[in-house]
Amino acid sequence: MRISHVSHAVMFACYSIFIGCSVYAEDYEDLLNAVNRQFAKEVKSDYGVIFESGGGELMEDVKRVTLQFKAYHRYSINEVRPLIVNMSERYLF
């Protein structure tokens, strides 16, 4: 399969979620990785997007989480907007 790069449509692949939570330094990275792994499995089966990478600001507490996904489908702007909203809401709740 070939990945189709459409600059205005596939940019949904990377989005950031800003959250403010505080846990002990030794635990937050493991907790975040577990949440991200579970989320990646769910969105792969439900939306057909593949988790590519993740990161964020995790100095003293979790400030920002960034997840990047690849899609083997060409999305229009009208398809991508609700996808971003649905994925973001699913991650947070």
Short description, anyone?
With 93 residues, the chain is an alpha+beta fold. The chain is built from two helices and three strands, in the order E-H-E-E-H.
Please write out the topology:
Layout: E1 14-21, H1 25-47, E2 49-57, E3 62-71, H2 77-92
Antiparallel strand pairs: 1-3, 2-3
Q: Strands of the largest sheet, in order across it?
A: 1-3-2
Topology as a string of helices (H) and strands (E): EHEEH
Oligomer: single chain
Classification by helices and strands: alpha+beta
Q: Give the second-level CATH assignment, the architecture.
A: 2-Layer Sandwich
CATH topology: Alpha-Beta Plaits
pLDDT < 50 stretches? 1-23
Mean pLDDT: 74
Question: How many strand segments?
Answer: 3
CATH class bucket: Alpha Beta
- Biggest sheet: strands, sense, closure? 3 strands, antiparallel
Helical coverage, percent range: 40-55%
**How large is the count of helical segments?**
2
Rg is 14 Å
User: In total, how many domains does the architecture comprise?
Assistant: 1
> What is the 3D shape?
elongated
Estimate what percentage of residues fall within beta strands: 25-35%
